[in-house]
Amino acid sequence: MNRVIAWTFATLLLAGPTVAKEPVPAMGTPRLLTLPAKREFRLENGLAVSFVPFGTVPKTTLMLTLATGAVAEGNHDGLADVVAQLLKHGAGALDTEGLARRAAEMGGGLDSGSGTEQMSVSMDVLGERTSDAVRMIADVVRHPGLPAADLPAIKAGMKRGVAVARSQAQGIAGEAFARLMWGDTAYGRSLPSDAAIDALTVDDVRHFVTAEFGAARAHLYVAGRFDEAAVERAIRASFADWPAGPGPRHTQPVPASTHVVRLIDRPGAKQSTILIGRSVIGPTQPGFMALSAANALYGGTPLLSRLDQNLREEKGWTYGVSSHLSPYRAISGWGVSADVNTDDTVGALGEIYRELDVLRTSPPPADELRRVQNYKAGNFLIGASSRQGLLGQLAFLAQQDLGDDWLVHYVERVAAVTPEQVQAAAARELDPRQLVLVIVGDLAKIKPGVLALPALKDADFR
Q1: CA atoms of 222 and 59, how far apart (whole Å)
Q2: What are the tens digits of pLDDT across the range 356-395?
Q3: CA distances, 408 to each of 18, 384, 414 (Å)
Q4: Model confidence at 218: pLDDT above 90
């Protein structure tokens, strides 16, 4: 599934020997991202198109995004994921095998996916086959096969994925956390029930495609080496008569605003899974860059962050701990995830709160901030150095209604964040009195200590 867990966990890092820290290099003049001279146009039906000449390899990546997703499922939990999977099972005159073979003949493959707020169909092909790929994507979203005979296998696979997630502490914690944070909404229902999956029909799938797919909420991105004139002709021939349909489906979740705690028993567990977080500002709002730097310093930079240094390197209580920002439209989720030794659960939770208090009350040393600024700048540039990575960034801009300036000056703005701005952003956004906390572990061993933590004295235990 594409949305098995709404809040994903970072891959745990294997413990290794502690090494001496090298001096932090001086932050040189930030290298700005140079966007290729992209060309954008819009068809009369509303379909947006972006051409991005990129690289020297004769390959092209195409991605069509649709501003819809799980937010449009209504009471049909899991439907958007099923739609995304069934889109690959034939289109136009081609069945499932024929569609896969035709995509392979173009030098790549076809993929589709669904998130809470966006769906996508993408292909990676030889540059000379870009126009053919345009026609295939058009068939997939406009004339999908949606064979009823293939639906049972897709639903069975989804149920297996859900069962695996619910058998693991991370999946249990993630499902409970999402529901506490976002309530009974598409944002909070991260795992559908077996009954909900069983109830889905091919008519539900067809109705979703008819109601939710249309040119007015679609954007086609093409990046790589390709004949722009030929590809534009293919786009106009394939998409010009696509009905506009409804405009983009824009929603915004309403998060929890109180300190809510849920303890879930897993008798005999050797580790406790901790998930803690809250809603924060989105990328369009002032102070987001400082908050992003605060998150990187706190737990968002592997091996360099305060949480990793404290809980992993110094105390050896965990193989890995991380914090993360997950932007939606106009709002973000912030969270910390960790798997810690059962006997160290209370101590680790106390340190998570203590480090948060330090972050909120004291500006970080300049050299420590430079370390995470270097990491964020380099990681961003690496991510935008491929066709797929760059298109992902452009789709993010469109989803957030941000201009190219946000990408072009990203590194510069990261470097400009000051220690005082980091502290102020953390103090404003990361109020411990509004955190949602979920712990999955052996409650017979950890519950008394957790209940006695001063940081949780006024929390709402559910």
Answers
A1: 11
A2: 999 999 999 999 999 999 999 988 888 888 999 999 999 9
A3: 37, 11, 12
A4: yes
**Helical axes 79-86 vs 151-166, angle rounded to 10°:** 130
Type of residue at 201: T
Cα dihedral sign, 214-219-224-230: positive
Please name the amino acid found at residue 91: A
Buried-exposed string 84-122: b where 16+ CB fall within 10 A, e elsewhere: bbbbbbbbbebebeebbebbeebbbebebbbbbbbbbbb
Closest alpha carbon to 335 in 1, 41, 9, 61: 9
Q: What pTM did the predictor assign? A: 0.88
Residue with tokens 């972050």: 359
Pick the closest to residue 324 from 5, 8, 4, 6 (CA basis).
Answer: 8
Whole-angstrom Cα Rg for the chain? 23
**For residue 51, what pLDDT is reported?**
97
Q: Nearest Cα to 64, choosing from 131, 105, 135, 119?
A: 119
pLDDT at 77 over 60: yes
What is the token pair recorded at 179? 């529901």
Give the per-residue pLDDT at 8: 34
Architecture of domain 39-239: 2-Layer Sandwich (3.30)
Q: How far apart (Å, rounded) are the C-alpha atoms in residues 302 and 12?
A: 10
Tens of pLDDT, residue by residue over 422-436, are 999 999 999 998 999
Q: How far is CA 449 from CA 143, 343, 453, in A?
A: 58, 10, 7
CATH class as words, domain 260-363+418-461: alpha beta
- Let me know if the fold of 39-239 is the same as that of 260-363+418-461: yes
How does DSSP classify residue 62?
E
What does the alpha-carbon distance between residue 30 and residue 378 come to, in Å, rounded to a whole number? 10
The structure tokens listed for 235 are 């786009």
Q: In 3D, which of 122, 313, 275, 261 has the Cα closest to residue 190?
A: 275
Mapping DSSP onto H, E and C, the string for 9-45 reads CCCCCCCCCCCCCCCCCCCCCCCCCCCCCCEEEECCC
For residue range 159-193, what is the model confidence (pLDDT) as tens digits? 999 999 999 999 999 999 999 999 888 889 989 99
Spatial distance between the Cα atoms of 112 and 65, rounded to a whole number of angstroms: 10
Question: pLDDT of 133-168, one tens digit each?
Answer: 999 999 999 999 999 999 999 999 999 999 999 999
* Average pLDDT in the chain: 90
Residues facing residue 387 across a β-bridge: none
**Could you give the angle at the alpha carbon of 238 between the alpha carbons of 250 and 112, nearest 5°?**
50
Domain segments of the chain as ranges: 39-239, 260-363+418-461
**What would the two tokens of residue 233 be?**
């002709």
Q: By three-state DSSP, how is residue 327 classified?
A: strand
